[in-house]
Amino acid sequence: MFTALFSTSVALSNYLRANLESLPAPGLGFGGGGGRVVSINSPREMREEADQEGLSIWLYRIERDDQRLNIPDERIAPNLVRRPPLPLRLHYLMTPVTFKGGHGGAPDIEQKVMGRVMQALHTRPILRGSDLNSTDFEGTETQLHIRPETLTLDETSRVWEALEGSFQLTVSYEVSVVNIAVITEPTLVAPVDVVLPDVVAIVGETV
Predict the structure, then answer these.
(1) CA distance linking residue 186 with residue 196, whole number of Å
(2) Is residue 203 part of a domain?
(3) Torsion of the alpha carbons at 11, 12, 15 and 21, rounded to the nearest 10
């Protein structure tokens, strides 16, 4: 499905929102009358365009999963095959956003938000089943595997340069494998014949 990227972002944000909002009062300002939100916007878009505080879950890089590119066509009927989907690995930048209108951030809140995010993703590194409700994955056997990845200081600096913003507390996570289905219809092929094993009769000589 072409909505797989968006559905992955929604599933991830829904899971983290539920974990942030479930904290006992006073919590961190998510839910319960608090104004902080979980957004798939970039940190800059949250701060400068939406004037929002909270957590940015920003999809900043997409790459093919080269280890799965040689999967053979799927036979869905005796005379029909379908090309395998495009397997992707998605990279998300998790960034607490605790400043609005140009004001400075709140390091204590940022570190607590980040700690909760890392705790939640360590507790459940695979999203599946009911975790995928309200997405196009709902009712499917999709599994989203999530793992933290280490970015060098240079890599992180380049990301913030692209965002035209100052360096902030952030961590990157990879989500895999996300499949983009092909558009074309299944291809008609010759059906597979049933191959029976050869039977060799061995006649023993009696003396």
Answers:
(1) 28
(2) no
(3) -120
| Per-residue DSSP letter, 67 | G
- Residue among 114, 118, 92, 117 nearest 105 (CA): 114
pTM recorded for the entire structure: 0.81
DSSP E strands, the chain:
37-39, 54-64, 74-77, 80-82, 86-97, 126-127, 144-149, 171-180, 187-188
Q: What is residue 132's three-state secondary structure?
A: helix
Instruction: Give per-residue pLDDT as tens, 160-188.
Output: 787 777 778 889 999 998 988 887 666 65
- Looking at the 3D structure of the chain, how many domains does it have? 1
Return d(Cα 140, Cα 130) in angstroms, integer: 10
Distance CA 161, CA 155 (A): 10
Domain that holds residue 67: 4-188
CB of 35 within 8 A of CB of 170? Answer: no
The answer to whether 98 and 53 have CB atoms below 8 angstroms apart is yes
Structure tokens at 40: 């798939």
Helices marked H in the chain = 4-21, 43-44, 107-123, 153-162
